[in-house]
Design brief:
This protein is mainly alpha-helical. The chain contains three helices and two strands, in the order E-E-H-H-H. It has helices at residues 31-39, 49-54, 86-103, and strands at 2-5, 25-28. Strands 1-2 form a two-stranded parallel ribbon.
């Protein structure tokens, strides 16, 4: 059983090819419920590395999936009257991503 956080999670069944999609899923509405279900043995979950860093949880172990495809990452800011440093942040983020890609 794969536990899916349908409200704030990035994992959907579309990540699996149709032929190997999990047959059993458990849907939850937030990260706390996702972790609780996993810790209770109701299923396993797939998430980004940031979940492991931000949400340690008793009874849950995170393991990297080194061959998993990368997840898209976006920057978000207020559309009206963005902070004056927004463009500088966006430029820095693009620079870091470009450096990371050339280093790998």
């Amino acid at each position: 059983t794969v536990v899916l956080n349908t409200v704030s999670g990035a994992t959907t069944l579309a990540l699996w090819p149709a032929a190997v999609r999990p047959a059993a899923t458990l849907t939850v509405a937030n990260t706390d419920d996702w972790l609780t279900a996993i810790a209770a043995g109701r299923g396993a979950g797939v998430s980004s590395a940031s979940t492991a860093a931000l949400h340690p949880y008793p009874g849950v172990v995170y393991r990297p999936l080194p061959d998993a495809p990368p997840l898209p990452v976006v920057l978000a800011w207020r559309d009206a009257f963005p902070h004056p440093a927004t463009e500088a942040l966006a430029a820095l983020a693009r620079e870091i991503v470009a450096e990371t890609r050339t280093a790998s």
